[in-house]
Amino acid sequence: MEIKDKVVLITGASGGIGLAAARHLAAAGAKVALAARSTEKLTQLANELRSQGHEALSVPTDMRNQAEVIQMVEATVQHFGQIDVLINNAGQAASGTITDVSIDDYRQIVELNMFGPLYAMQAVIPKMRSQGGGIIVNVSSMVSRMHIPGLAAYASTKAALNMLSDTARGELASDNIRVITFYPRMTATDFGRNSLGNRQMRQQQRATTNRPEVVVDSPESVAEKILEAVQKEPAEQFMDS
Ligand SMILES: NC(=O)c1ccc[n+]([C@@H]2O[C@H](COP(=O)([O-])OP(=O)(O)OC[C@H]3O[C@@H](n4cnc5c(N)ncnc54)[C@H](OP(=O)(O)O)[C@@H]3O)[C@@H](O)[C@H]2O)c1
Questions:
Q1: Residues 6+ apart with CB under 8 A from 215
Q2: With a 6 A CB cut-off, is 58 part of the ligand 1 pocket?
Q3: Cβ of 17 less than 6 Å from ligand 1
């Protein structure tokens, strides 16, 4: 898809990958709707983008709340008149082994990483159908294809998202709605700090990932890949492909 003048709704836009994607896509000519819970950060980002001549809308949303997600999509369409791209990026991890992972933490990330993107897809699909098509990018994780001790809860939510995403691709192909599963690897954001769960295990994981041989991407390079995915519309997008 040619991105110029397209309306892109980005969840998790208040920080990390989502914030970098909002800046990068706006610079490429997209009109951006920015969703997350931190209203102030979204307002600041929307103001920054507008001051650079871009069109930006802040839509504060808790992605675990279906009514708020529906409202997020309605507000975007009301403001811009359409919605061309949904980037389901908001997400969080929870650390803990199978023996001790907190069920409450797990439930929270199931709500955010699985139901959140599903609520958003269900809300945008009718809009995209009536416009004749669109693109949905579901931000998964490479860990959904690995077996890392202490990360099963998080990895399983992203593995479930992969299935939702890959199945939606077939279901929506005849509506000209392209569904892309996007696989970031380790990225330098506050993601680790924002993770729920076992603190000691999170520190151990950080120590492991701080080793020089571990590749860590910048959020800006991930944002570039997201833009590339929207432009080229592959079924799956990896950082090294
Ligand atoms: N960083 C990595 O190493 C890495 C690797 C692979 C995949 N990923 C995936 O990439 C995506 C972005 O991660 P990141 O690294 O940018 O993490 P991050 O820096 O922690 O940012 C997470 C974003 O999600 C938002 N968010 C969290 N809970 C939310 C909720 N209930 N409702 C709405 N928004 C919510 C946060 O905003 P608020 O707090 O303002 O709501 C924030 O904007 C996630 O899906 C993550 O799983 C990250």
A1: 185, 186
A2: no
A3: yes
> What does the pLDDT look like over 89-132, one tens digit per residue?
999 999 999 999 999 999 999 999 999 999 999 999 999 999 99
Catalytic site positions: 154
Longest dimension (CA), the chain: 52
54 lies in a domain? yes
- Residue 2, domain member (yes or no): no
Phi and psi for 151 in degrees, rounded to 5? -120, 15
Distance from residue 109's CA to the centre of ligand 1 (Å): 11
Nearest ligand 1 atom to alpha carbon 184? 6
The CATH number for 110's domain is 3.40.50.720
Residue 216 within any structural domain of the chain: yes
Domain of 69, in residue numbers: 7-238
Give the distance (Å) from ligand 1 centre to CA of residue 143. Answer: 15
Give tens-digit pLDDT for 126-136. Answer: 999 999 999 99
- Other CB atoms within 10 A of residue 174 CB: 7
